[in-house]
Automatic annotation (TrEMBL):
SMART domains: REC. This is Response regulator. Keywords: Phosphoprotein. Residues 1-22 are annotated as: Disordered. The modification 4-aspartylphosphate is found at residue 83. It comes from Larkinella rosea.
Length: 155
């Protein structure tokens, strides 16, 4: 697997992210969002339909992902956006589960969270996250972040 370093400058700090290539190389890459906030899932669906129709979005709560998607036989997504703070299983625990599973470990996982904790970032990167992004608070900002992350990860 090839890895590269990507520097992303933001207003708050400079961060170093490492990304893997897309898992499947599909013409229409599949993005899997695992998120406990229904409003965020609705926002991602809207961004997909309006600004990113060239991608297939899969939207899951943490519980639904574990109960329906984790053990299914469908092709794996090209990239996972994983929230960190979730009620059924933490993003860190789910990240570990994904990276230890032979069917999922090759799928790049980006932590996409409101957490700004350096400790959270370090723990996630140590557990195998391919990137750690702080969610913007605006709709436009989140849309721009998703587009940028996809351009970096799926080129």
């Amino acid at each position: 697997m090839n890895y590269g370093n990507v520097m992303r400058n933001s207003e708050s700090d400079d961060s170093n992210f490492t990304f893997s290539p897309p898992a499947s190389g599909n013409e229409h890459p599949t993005l899997c969002f695992i998120e406990d906030n229904d409003d965020n899932l609705t926002l991602y669906e809207w961004i997909n339909s309006r600004y990113m129709p060239e991608y297939t979005f899969e939207l899951y709560t943490d519980e639904r992902f574990l109960n329906q998607r984790f053990n299914d036989s469908m092709p794996r997504p090209d990239l996972i956006f994983l929230d960190l703070k979730m009620p059924q299983i933490s993003g860190g625990q789910l990240l570990t589960k994904l990276k230890e599973d032979p069917e999922w470990k090759h799928v790049p996982v980006v932590i996409f969270t409101h957490s700004t904790s350096p400790k959270d970032m370090e723990q996630c990167m140590d557990a195998g996250a391919d990137g750690f992004f702080n969610k913007d608070i605006s709709v436009h900002g989140i849309k721009s972040q998703l587009i940028e992350i996809c351009e970096i990860c799926l080129k």
